[in-house]
Amino acid sequence: TGGSTSTVAWTFGDGSGSTDTLGVHTYTAPGTYPVTLSIRTDEGCTRDTTVTVVVAGYLNGVITATPNPTDVEHPTVALSGSTSTGDIIAWWWDLGVATPGTASTMEVPATFPAEVGDYPVLLVVTSSAGCVDTVRSVVHVYDRGQIIMPNVFSPNADGHNDRFVPLDYTGEPGLLVVYNRWGQEVYSTRALAQGWDGAGLPDGTYYFVVTPDDPKVEGQAGHVTLVR
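Above: the chain sequence. Below: its structure as tokens.
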């Protein structure tokens, strides 16, 4: 504009501004913001310059594997990549030892070795704004004919691990019996899919026995920690 600069004013498009010569600002939400720099000289000349700043939302990728866990007789798992924020335009899978090994689609059927094990998978997702996120998960493959129970559950009504139920239950009928630390039976059920919710009992360590009706199906005995 000519002359010496006497005042500088920034407006950042989100209701905030600054009179510092160097306009530094941190946005707290994604969006498109018009940023204006206003300069006024000692001679009274003014000039405004506006640019548009695009703040992309944080990309939070998610891997969904169905079923997971699975068993050695059903080693094919449907993998899907999604996000809880933003939108995804590109997917890149590294499936490790699974077939097809790599893929570049939102959904991919992955066939894992028919062997008991924990198999890692990796997904890289890219949003339309150019943000990239890397997500990792593990697919668990168990023996067929084995009921696997968790070692902890938290019946606090948060929707996660609220009941003591089999991890890989495929419908085998059987009996679940739970004992306290003194060996007293505190719960039993034949509804394995419903399991135990710990109602009326304090936090602590309990002992259980799962006995399948089918002798070809392996049961389990052990301990579980109830934590609210």
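The longest strand covers residues 31-41.
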